[in-house]
Design a protein that fits this description.
Blueprint (H helix, E strand, L loop, with lengths): L6 H4 L9 H6 L2 H11 L2 H26 L5 H18 L8 H20 L4 H21 L5 H8 L3 H10 L1 H24 L6 H20 L3 H12 L4 H8 L3 H24 L1
Amino acid sequence: MEEQHTVQNLQAPPHASLTQEELEGLDDQALLELYKQTGDQELKWVLVLRFTGLVRRIAAQASGLYSNFAQLDDIVHEGVLVLSSAIDKFDLSKNVKFETYVSKRLRGMIVDLARRQDWLPRQVRQKATRLTRAMDELSVQLGRAPESREVAEYLGLSREQYDALLSETAVSSLVSFEAVLDNYNGAQEKLLLSEEQANPTEEAFQDQELHTVLEAGIASLRKNEQMVLSLYYERELNMKEIAQVLGVSAARVSQIHSRALQRLRSCMKQYIES
């Protein structure tokens, strides 16, 4: 296997002095470091090209949820702009992989697109609000995230009607869950900024606290809900691919995904308000 160069052993000169072979030999981290050192826009373009496949993969994965409001090419175009900005904003001193960092920003961009376009029909939005309110009220009454059966009974729906409601409001569930996370992160940022100096130890503690809450929430989910979240967010499969793995319909996967996010949202909301 051909050894990849690093910035340390290459002692790289500006991009203009690198051969094409040397450039291709740089791994992503080394290329990022070299771009940060030189500010060479040609290097940035090479990085954009390297990660465009990631943009397309995440856009295609999300298209199963968002196909009603945007064409795949439009999402990819927005994603490349986010990628370009992320390259400049990425902090090499943080112990985070660039792919992890940019993936989070890309998913946030897709959710923001859904929010901005406000494309949900009024009737669907009303149903989503009704479902969210029911989940919140039951969470307070029960002291935990409610089961599907309990939510269906609370709303006076049959299980089939409840599953249909989950499918119809799937995107709204995702946006709502992201909004809770945004509120949590925003509150923590304000708390940290209120100090005379941001405390990295405190910031790390808050991140760990969030992960602990989410892990506990995920652990409380059913096995099929955990599986869908794992295949969607970790393996980055789309709804149709997950349906093939689980041997169910894509609509059923969407229902499971929506239900899992609603329950996680309840867990997060309880924690934030406690």
